[in-house]
Prior knowledge:
The protein has 572 residues and is of the alpha/beta class. The chain is built from 22 helices and 14 strands. Helix content is 50%, strand content 12%. Strands 6-8-9-10-7-11 form a six-stranded mixed β-sheet, with helices on both faces. A five-stranded mixed β-sheet has the order 1-4-3-2-5. It has a three-stranded antiparallel β-sheet with strand order 13-12-14. The radius of gyration is 30 Å and the shape is globular. Adenosine-5'-triphosphate binds at residues 145-148, 185-191, 242, 287, 289, 321, 324, 349-350, 353. Keywords: ATP-binding, Cell membrane, Hydrolase, Membrane, Metal-binding, Metalloprotease, Nucleotide-binding, Protease, Transmembrane, Transmembrane helix, Zinc.
Amino acid sequence: MKKIMIPVMSVLLLMLIGAGIYSLNKPKNEMSYPSFLDAVEKGRVSKVTLYEDKGTFDAYLENDPETGYTVPNPMTEDFVEFLLVNNVSVSYKNGNISGIFGILIVAIVGFGIIYYTRGTGSAKNLITDANKKDSEKEKITLDSVAGNVEAKAMVEDVIGFIKNPSQYTSLGARMPKGLLFYGPPGTGKTLLAKAIAGEADVPFYAMSGSDFVQMYVGVGASRIRSLFNKAKKHEKAVIFIDEIDAIGKKRARNSSASNDERDQTLNALLTEMSGFNDNQGIVVIGATNRLDTLDEALLRPGRFDRQIEIGLPDVNSRKRILELHAKNKPMSDDVDLDNLAKSTVGFSGAMLENLLNEAAIIAANEKKSYITYKHIDKAFYTVLAGAPKTDVSYISERERKITAYHEAGHALATKLLLPENYISKVTIIPSVKGAGGFNLSIPKDAMYQSQRQILANIKILYAGRAAEELIFGPEEITTGASNDIQKASSLIADYTDKFGMDPEIGLFSTRIFHDIPDAELIEKCRAIANSLYKETKQLLSENIQALEKITTELLQKETLNGDDIDNLLGLK
Ligand SMILES: Nc1ncnc2c1ncn2[C@@H]1O[C@H](COP(=O)(O)OP(=O)(O)OP(=O)(O)O)[C@@H](O)[C@H]1O
Ligand SMILES: [Zn+2]
């Protein structure tokens, strides 16, 4: 890094001296800031002289290098970067201080800016070509990513496409130009993106969304263009934009004030994405912790239209992640990675890596030649203390058990009441949204829902709470069912007042009278809720052995799919 700095510095100094000489004839013509930006975009600005102590600078046009224009705008590092990114040569001048002294100050500023833009991996980092850096170490491939089996499967064809786009386009296949990885922090989104580039053997360009959010209109957009321009030079590449929500956040509904800068940046991204050829072999990958906050414009076909969840690892994946990161770390025999995987519920891959790393540091501090269980135990505190509270909290054994019964309740009720539904996943790993676990059952494609299906769905929602009550007793029920209860209530309201399915209430809907609360209707809904809940408890208690079986398996494996459950219940 230092080696590059010296020549760059000298060039800058030369430029500065040149500028010092130039400064004698200060331009008289004026140019507005917007037309200046326009000129930069069109590549017409050849040179800019910045005055540190004034709110103006001088711009010199390509076809008219003699006549300068004064443009009103304060100078900032972002602005300078915007110019550099657009190949405008920049020099500095201080209006009052001249000569060697001025040049000195200017040199310091220049040094600062170069240091700033080439900073070693700071948050403000510019475009990084990870492949170049990584080739010095070790190439990142899919094998570097442990667990995340589904996500890895979902990117296989993208790798195939980057390697040989025509194989896909000749069949008329349109590959996604953009992938969106979403999930909690530290789950390996960046790692997987690098692995795609590594497997396809193409350059990797990464930036973070927060680098694009700038005070100055046009800077973010120009950084996007420059990022894509660098990638496009290679024909094939992976472009990775972390924290994409920083550019593509949904607008607040009632904010009339438009955010010009953000809109321009987002538009530049969308334009760039539609700009390159379908058969080129460039793939853009965005990552976010919050899928729900993203602007829909980003998710449309031809943009980030393949969305891949990267969740927290289950016990098996945790073991594999631990094994991967333990490879280069000598461990004593008392370290049992199986057990460690079991006791790290809710840990992300990054936290597991961190755990082993901290343990290694502790062992090294103690001048030991290997890591013992004691070191890992100590490291727990460091890792947990540094963990974001909202994502991971230490989950007690009792909480795990409650969650397991709760989720098993949902799963079993689905099997019993809507066997035609396909259960994709039951898990006790916390999801992004903070629920204890989730239970996804996908209904068979159908236009309508029958009365039987709606009632079954309500009971399935109640089955989590019912299982908790059945096993732990009415006084031990938890807040974990709040979301279920809300959903069930809204289904009951639809059942009675929208679909007219309750025989007693009949076909009249009070929804035509907008603001009139109907106390009688509410009472009836409440009665329906209570009786459906009772039936759900009854159903589970009649099938308590099946409930126990699913729970035990969930506690052991943490995540089950539909086939696992069928096997457990002897349905296959
Ligand atoms: N599945 C995994 N397999 C192996 N290592 C992992 C895995 N997940 C995370 N890690 C480790 O954690 C580090 C950080 O992961 P990474 O930066 O890819 O997470 P991220 O999901 O991009 O996080 P963020 O959302 O905070 O940007 C990786 O470099 C790696 O050491
Ligand atoms: Zn639930």
